[in-house]
Write a structure and sequence with these properties.
Strand content: 5-15%
Number of helices: 7
CATH architecture of the largest domain: 3-Layer(aba) Sandwich
Radius of gyration: 27 Å
Oligomer: single chain
Shape: elongated
CATH topology of the largest domain: Ribosomal Protein L4, Chain: A
CATH class of the largest domain: Alpha Beta
CATH superfamily of the largest domain: Ribosomal protein L4/L1
Length: 207
């Protein structure tokens, strides 16, 4: 399977061979859905916290005797039934991570990439090295490639000019080839790889 390689001026400069095992997989919607849920769940901080009765401020003494006052018996003003008392069954710090295997993650990523390629939404460039870090320059070049409004740019994290040029535009997102995930693929209209980044990703997925 071959993909046309272009440059930033949208000129064809060659072709790159990609394995059928990565870009020719059937579309597995349920698997992609499962992995995307896991990716989004792992991003949740899980730092929400309420105080139980042992953590709220308040005296520990019994405010009135058990019997003889005509009032309901009361053991502590920090009881949940009192104003400013502790909270019962409130949220506590936790992890929201879902159990997804490495094989499932790779399978979902291959399926998403295959669908993108079949839909003509994957572009491969000979290089994503920019002469300038200006956002407008990058926007013009991406528009010239025919990419959609939301574009994922995949290259090395050492490409400083690309990172600086893309960070001011929410429609552009950069990611290292070894850190790409299913959510990044399905959430963007087009995916633009540098040839080097594509080879690195294929190397990881082929293991």
């Amino acid at each position: 399977m071959k993909i046309t390689v272009k440059n930033l001026n949208n000129e064809e400069v060659g072709e790159v061979e990609v394995p059928e095992a990565v870009f020719g997989c059937p579309y597995k919607e349920h698997l992609i859905h499962t992995v995307v849920r896991a990716v989004l769940a792992a991003r949740r901080a899980g730092t929400h916290k309420t105080k139980v009765r042992s953590e709220v401020a308040g005296t520990g003494r019994k405010l009135w005797r058990q019997k003889g006052t005509g009032r309901a018996r009361m053991g502590s003003p920090r009881s949940p039934i009192w104003r400013k008392g502790g909270t019962v069954h409130g949220p506590q710090p936790r992890s929201y991570e879902l159990g997804v295997s490495v094989g499932e993650k790779k399978g979902a990523l291959k399926s998403a990439l295959s669908r993108k390629l079949a839909d003509g939404e994957i572009l491969v460039l000979d290089s994503l090295l920019l002469e300038s870090h200006k956002t407008k320059v990058l926007e013009k070049q991406i528009a010239g490639l025919g990419a959609g409004k939301k574009t994922l740019l995949v290259d090395s994290r050492e490409n400083d000019n690309l990172l600086k040029a893309a960070c001011n535009n929410p429609r552009l997102k950069t990611i290292d080839a070894r850190a790409i995930n299913v959510y990044d693929i399905v959430e963007r209209d087009h995916v633009v790889f540098s040839q080097t980044a594509l080879e690195k990703m294929v190397e990881v997925l082929g293991r």
